[in-house]
Design brief:
Helices cover 53% and strands 11% of the residues. By secondary structure, the protein is of the alpha/beta class. The chain has a five-stranded mixed sheet, with helices on both faces. Strands 5-4-8 form a three-stranded antiparallel sheet.
């Protein structure tokens, strides 16, 4: 009898505790909802006046700021910016001036594209451009994402691609001039810190020597700092070899869909180009590294020359981050997709600026002595597994790499000492 009454008392106490907890939660929810109750405060932003001021500052015939100020603040010339704005207006109605339900004019395309470029160029907070351009934080972030998507869709096919036959001929001619026949560029990886990486992902995006979450970009750059290959999105805990194993750098070559490259060095003929790389990359004939612990004068000189030319990709990374400071500071977005859009758009804009300022005045006829570029091999069906394995074996042959390195050492030494 006593045990039954004690259990009933315990059940009543537990039931009372549960009721008290539920009541406390209800009170907390009511208090929080009462704080949010009420109309959202309206901020009148004079966007028409902001558009007029922007026009007078940069886009009229007698604008306040000269072209060098525009180039510094927009990272490009005004003619290129206006072409981009016009093309985005054709691509999406978002980049056209529209009228809202009250008949008031919306933000102009110049305001939206300027807002996106300021965020990319300076890496500033989204609400910091409100005072000048009259865009709220959410609108500025929306402009940034739509701008990046538009750049990728409109210009990705032209400025985010692998080199064509004419491009390769120019690259090989410049490589011969610099003492490395057959070189297609230099390859390396860059880490972009991710400050708002989800807590559950931080382990796989953090490497021990970096101490914070990052996302890796693998890139190939040429002498003019043009980025020909970019592979972004691998978690920061990986090293350059892990990234290489996931990237699509050699996919077209294995399938036979890439232009063929043949060159001669030290009286030996080779049938594939190579990239200059640092010591972590494998000893394959598609990469060329310096000599580790060089003992001979020839080896020391070759390693110095190789390191000097290999800095092309490092310079490209530096210019990319200086030009678009958003890549030099930790990424703020919670979305990995948004960070990928920003990275790809910045690379496309980087290449567009190089092309625009180069002006297309360079000679298209490049004479090479030891290099030849042939057309890609197009099959009616994908190549067989045996052919693909044969190509992959040729690309990873350690014997061919050793012979190529010896030939290049002799070539670089003879070129600079005779």
């Amino acid at each position: 009898m006593s045990s039954s009454s004690s259990s009933d008392g315990l059940g009543d106490a537990l039931f009372a505790a549960v009721e008290d907890t539920i009541a406390a939660l209800k009170a907390q929810m009511e208090a929080s909802s009462s704080r949010r109750r009420g109309p959202r405060r309206y901020i009148h932003r004079d966007r028409e006046d902001a558009h007029t001021r922007l026009l007078n500052d940069y886009f009229t015939d007698n604008c306040i700021y000269p072209p060098n100020y525009f180039r510094r603040r927009y990272r490009m010339r005004r003619s290129l910016f206006l072409r981009i704005t016009e093309r985005l207006g054709e691509y999406s109605s978002y980049f056209t001036e529209r009228v809202d339900a009250t008949g008031r004019r919306g933000l102009s395309p110049l305001q939206k594209c300027t807002a996106a470029l300021r965020l990319l160029a300076y890496g500033i907070a989204a609400d910091s451009i409100d005072e000048y351009l009259k865009l709220g934080k959410s609108t500025a972030l929306e402009c940034l994402e739509n701008f990046c998507e538009g750049i990728i869709e409109c210009y990705g096919a032209e400025f985010y691609r692998r080199p064509t036959e004419s491009d390769l001929q120019r690259l090989l001619a410049k490589a011969e001039e610099r003492g490395f026949p057959g070189m297609l560029g230099s390859i390396d990886c860059m880490h972009w810190q991710w400050s708002n990486c989800p807590v559950g992902w931080q382990g796989q995006f953090t490497r021990g020597d970096i101490k914070h979450p990052t996302i890796i970009l693998e890139a190939v750059a040429s002498y003019d700092r043009w980025i020909w290959h970019a592979f972004f999105g691998v978690a920061g805990s990986n090293n350059d070899i892990n990234v290489l194993n996931q990237s699509l750098l050699f996919t077209d070559a294995i399938r036979g869909q890439e232009p063929t490259v043949r060159f001669t060095v030290n009286n030996h003929e080779y049938n594939m180009g190579y990239y200059l790389a640092d010591g972590i990359y494998p000893s394959w004939p598609v990469f060329m590294k310096g000599v580790p612990l060089p003992q001979l004068e020839k080896h020391r000189f070759f390693s110095e020359q190789q390191a000097s030319v290999r800095k092309d990709v490092e310079c490209a990374f530096g210019i990319l981050k200086k030009r678009f400071n958003i890549l030099a500071i930790p990424g703020r977005s919670y979305s990995q997709r948004t960070l990928g859009l920003i990275m790809r758009a910045c690379i496309i804009l980087h290449n567009m600026i190089i092309d625009d300022e180069r002006g297309g005045s360079f000679d298209e006829n490049y004479e090479t002595v030891t290099s030849f570029v042939g057309p890609a091999i197009h099959y009616n069906a994908p190549p067989s597994l045996a052919i693909r394995l044969q190509r992959e074996a040729a690309m990873t042959s350690g014997q061919v790499y050793s012979q190529l390195q010896r030939d290049l050492i002799e070539h670089v030494w003879n070129k600079n000492h005779h």
